[in-house]
Each structure stands twice: as C-alpha cells, then as structure tokens.
Amino acid sequence: MKKIDINKYKVEFMEKFAFEFKEWMSPTIRDYYSLFIKKAHTNKSQLLSWVKEYSILKDGRSISVAQKPVQLSPEARELFLQLRAQIGEEVHVGDWLEITQDRIDRFADVTEDHQWLHNDVEKAEKESPFKTTIAHGFLTLSLLPRLTDSVNPEKPLYPSAKMTVNYGLNQVRFPYPVKTGSVVRAHSRLIKVTPIKRGLEIEKEISIEIKNTRRPGCVAVSVVRVYF
User: Model-level pTM?
Assistant: First the structure.
C-alpha cells in the first residue's frame, strides 16, 4: 500500500472515531469538546492559557498560572473549602411546584408570547401532539430561582455573604415539554467553585424533574457570584 493511501486511511479512521466519540458524549461535555477543538485549531498559545486557567487554594490564597493570586476573606475561604468538598454531589432538591394554565397565561402576557401551544387550550387539545397546552421553555427557566430556593429571604443559601448575583447560564436545554398541570421540582448538582475578587463563582447543573416523567423539562448550568 502506498504511503499516501495509508495517510488517507488514518485520516478517515480518525474522523470516523472523532464523530462517534462526540455522539457518545453528553450535551454538556460535547460543547466543551467542541470549544476545545475550536481553540486548538485557532490559536495554540490561546489554548495553552485556557488549559492552564485552573486555580487552587493554599493558605487562603488562590494560586493561578494565568492570573494573579486572589486574596479571600476568612468567610469566603471557609465557604470555598466547604463547597470544594461537595463538587459532583447533589446539593439541593427543591419542593414540588404545579405549573398551572394561569401561570402560563400570565407569563405570556409579560413576554407577549401568546403562541397557541401555550395559551389556546381548545386548539391544543385538538392539534397539539401533547393534547394539552405546554409551558414556555423560558417560563421553566425563569422559575429556577424559585425552584432552587435561592430567593427565599428566610433561608439564604450563603448566610455569610453580603451579596449574591445571578451571573448567567453556560448552557440551557429543554429535553421535554412541561405540560399544563405538571408538577416540577429542581435538582441541583455542584460542578465548580472558583475564587474571584471579593468572593466566589459557583456553577451548578440544575435539572428540572417532571413528576412521573423520565426526561427533565430543563437542564441548565447556572453561574452565581457570591460576594463577601
């Protein structure tokens, strides 16, 4: 076999392997994999700095190759050590909440999204594959603070913090529709905690369970910053 044929075979084999490997991944890992490959092809030096951006805590200081050390307050350091020990664990399961048609209609009024799948009960019973109206995906998403108990002033998640800020979302999926009348609750799994200036950045994977349904209504990675 000629050398050029061997190289062609190797390329075809690797492309097939990479495709099958990517399909095997979960959506979250797949996105990180795609980002990694994109950075590898775009800029090698940028990739190296991206890989090295990993911090550890030592004697109250965050040691980072890519950044200057971050000085943590005693309260932040205590919370960091507590959370670091819980990474990978389910840290919260919320209470059940019913998604009523009234709640869906009020959300539609606020967002001006009155698509019949959400608000026209009679049409949905006849034409929708779900045989009923369903909640907006963004309604389910907007309920994350309520479902994770992060807005209850009587039970703050981080009592020693001066301020907690919703910093954003890394990824959002709606694997299954939340039908009207469904009862849902949130499961939160801690996946990362990073020291930042004056506090911590905390990432959790939140899955919205639908009672008596195998697939979740929403899966999102929530990013919260806690300041001390």
Answer: 0.68
